[in-house]
């Protein structure tokens, strides 16, 4: 049932993608702002209450409707699952940005690529060169595919079914929105949302990294994961991007995140040339790497679908 629900939702999304600025998402954002206003007094336990309120407000109705549909008819339960998966999966929510950036760079239009990247990432891109544009676009694509697709897949397999997908997407949104704005970044209110999503995403992130390794260059992906993921400021991001970059043979991240610290020359008896810093495997991002990213994500999607099919067959036979 889960496999068929996901397959139908993916097919519907390919035919009619759900835009990221749709009215439902806008309503969720508005409700999150209201809940933050109700509970935020600058303390972590206030953030915990607000987080639980948001999660309960969306997961409990999802579970109740699913159980009611299952009582009435399996087809209704199936239809409800497809609706929820369609709303929580975001395989094509942001793909137009990636495709447009790829086309702009292919045509040599760096200014358009910078503008599109700024809209997508919400960061200043005016001083970025082509290599940095490519790197950030690839990183954003890999993280987005994990959080909008592969992480959702994992939680759909949990006993709470479609409510698991809702829990994952709401938790991801709260961890981001209650910590990114300048007025909340240093407050304790959003810290619980960050910690909660870290544990919610702990297993899915590692499964996504493993999938990248399986469908790409396995040895380089595992090597980069083991030796360089811990250098990233965000552990989960480091795991996904080091594995994804290694799988494609592309070096992602900043210099501090892709190479070990240089050993002081006096520690080497004054011979700095005797020390060769270890760097993450792969080449700097290129236009060809953008197409490799698309292929990696699609192959990973097919691997997840195959695993879901096997799990569904095993459950049916059992």
Automatic annotation (TrEMBL):
Pfam families: CobD_Cbib. Keywords: Cell membrane, Cobalamin biosynthesis, Membrane, Transmembrane, Transmembrane helix. It is a multi-pass membrane protein. Pathway: Cofactor biosynthesis; adenosylcobalamin biosynthesis. The keyword Transmembrane helix applies. NCBIfam families: PRK07630.1. Converts cobyric acid to cobinamide by the addition of aminopropanol on the F carboxylic group. This is Cobalamin biosynthesis protein CobD. It comes from Keguizhuia sedimenti.
């Amino acid at each position: 049932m889960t496999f068929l629900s996901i397959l139908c939702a993916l097919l519907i999304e390919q035919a009619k993608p759900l835009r990221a600025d749709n009215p439902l998402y806008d309503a969720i954002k508005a409700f999150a702002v209201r809940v933050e206003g109700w509970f935020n007094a600058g303390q972590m336990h206030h953030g915990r209450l607000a987080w639980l309120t948001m999660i309960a407000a969306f997961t409990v109705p999802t579970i109740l409707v699913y159980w009611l549909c299952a009582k009435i008819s399996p087809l209704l339960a199936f239809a409800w699952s497809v609706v929820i998966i369609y709303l929580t999966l975001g395989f094509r929510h942001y793909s137009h940005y990636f495709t447009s950036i790829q086309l702009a760079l292919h045509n040599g239009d760096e200014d358009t690529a910078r503008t599109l990247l700024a809209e997508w990432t919400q960061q200043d891109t005016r001083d970025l060169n082509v290599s940095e544009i490519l790197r950030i676009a690839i990183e954003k694509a890999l993280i987005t595919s994990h959080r909008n697709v592969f992480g959702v897949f994992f939680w759909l397999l949990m006993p709470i079914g479609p409510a698991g997908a809702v829990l994952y997407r709401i938790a991801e949104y709260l961890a981001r929105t209650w910590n990114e704005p300048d007025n909340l970044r240093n407050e304790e209110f959003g810290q619980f949302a960050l910690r909660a999503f870290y544990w919610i995403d702990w297993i899915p992130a590692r499964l996504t990294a493993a999938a990248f390794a399986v469908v790409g260059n396995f040895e380089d992906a595992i090597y980069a994961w083991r030796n360089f993921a811990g250098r990233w400021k965000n552990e989960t991001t480091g795991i996904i991007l080091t594995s994804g970059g290694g799988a494609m043979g592309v070096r992602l991240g900043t210099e501090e995140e892709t190479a070990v610290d240089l050993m002081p020359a006096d520690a080497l008896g004054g011979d700095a040339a005797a020390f060769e810093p270890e760097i993450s495997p792969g080449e700097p991002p290129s236009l060809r790497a953008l197409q490799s990213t698309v292929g990696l994500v699609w192959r990973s999607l097919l691997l997840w679908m195959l695993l879901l099919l096997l799990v569904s067959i095993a459950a049916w036979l059992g």
